């Protein structure tokens, strides 16, 4: 799991919202994110390991919104 201040900030700010029905995202947005994650799953998981802290935070956020376990 990425250990950076950016990741921690995003997780702290949006983590509870993502756990509770994806926060304030509408159904269409969540559907688009799930489709993106389905087609880019390998890329996102590699980004979690080798990306910059900001890239890791973005990838983690997308995976959490899509409901993919890390």
Automatic annotation (TrEMBL):
<protein>
    <submittedName>
        <fullName>Uncharacterized protein</fullName>
    </submittedName>
</protein>
């Amino acid at each position: 799991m990425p250990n950076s201040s950016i990741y921690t900030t995003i997780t702290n700010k949006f983590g509870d919202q993502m756990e509770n029905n994806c926060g304030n995202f509408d159904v269409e947005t969540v559907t688009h994110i799930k489709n993106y994650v389905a087609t880019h799953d390998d890329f996102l998981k590699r980004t979690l390991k080798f990306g910059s802290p900001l890239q890791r935070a973005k990838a983690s956020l997308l995976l959490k919104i899509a409901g993919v376990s890390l």
